[in-house]
Amino acid sequence: MSQVVIDLNADLGEGFGRWRLTDDEQLLSVVTSANVACGFHAGDAATMRRVCELAAQRGVRIGAQVSYRDLAGFGRRAMDVPTDELSAEVAYQIGALEVFARAAGTRVAYVKPHGALYNRVVRDEEQAGAVVEGVLLAGGRLPVLGLPGSRLLDVAEKAGLPTVTEAFADRAYTDEGTLVPRTRAGAVITSGDEVVARSLDLAANGSVASLTGRRVDVGARSLCLHGDTPGAVELAREVRARLEADGVDVRAFA
């Protein structure tokens, strides 16, 4: 049997000015891919530069975490953005992060939508198409991270972009394999032991129990660990240690 390989990603650079949300330096010692906020839901120029430099020093892959323009709502509020405007804003965010990635001696390696945009493109083909158009507009053929079965991954594949399926150990799933909205009770898994157990389940079996207890197939090449929860660094370290102890090869996706 071949060894299980999985990437660990986290949302980083989610501060603005003097406000800090994630412990970027410590998380970058654990994860293999960093989803860096590009200024629309969080992040600013100085933060993007700092995170890119730290990621490059540690050999962590840099991804552009693109979002609706929603600093006040942290990118988690539903918005209706015209497709031509959204594609331009996606390209803008990728380009901004690329400047700092190149200055640090590396490149932006992939793209992942954030928050409301991430959830919207699971089902909305038009918005998914705008994101893909933005990736193409930014140049290169960057891989796109998304939920298995999402419209985003389908549209990206048709456009010739590599796709990477992603799972969440600290988020509850519906019976259909989508994420339970944060407005519902139980949407976020807060028990550290449960997050670790779900991480092992996802890596070994490619499935996880939904909020109702049904087994849901969510086979993924990358596992997201949210950095904005209490004890995030310690939990991320525990997840990686347990995965490696179980023989999982933790490394960035090819």
UniProtKB/TrEMBL annotation:
InterPro entries: Glyco_hydro/deAcase_b/a-brl (IPR011330), LamB/YcsF/PxpA-like (IPR005501). It catalyses: 5-oxo-L-proline + ATP + 2 H2O = L-glutamate + ADP + phosphate + H(+). Pfam families: LamB_YcsF. The keyword Hydrolase applies. GO terms for molecular function: 5-oxoprolinase (ATP-hydrolyzing) activity. Keywords: ATP-binding, Hydrolase, Nucleotide-binding. Its EC number is 3.5.2.9. Catalyzes the cleavage of 5-oxoproline to form L-glutamate coupled to the hydrolysis of ATP to ADP and inorganic phosphate. Belongs to the LamB/PxpA family. Forms a complex composed of PxpA, PxpB and PxpC. This is 5-oxoprolinase subunit A. It comes from Streptomyces solicavernae.
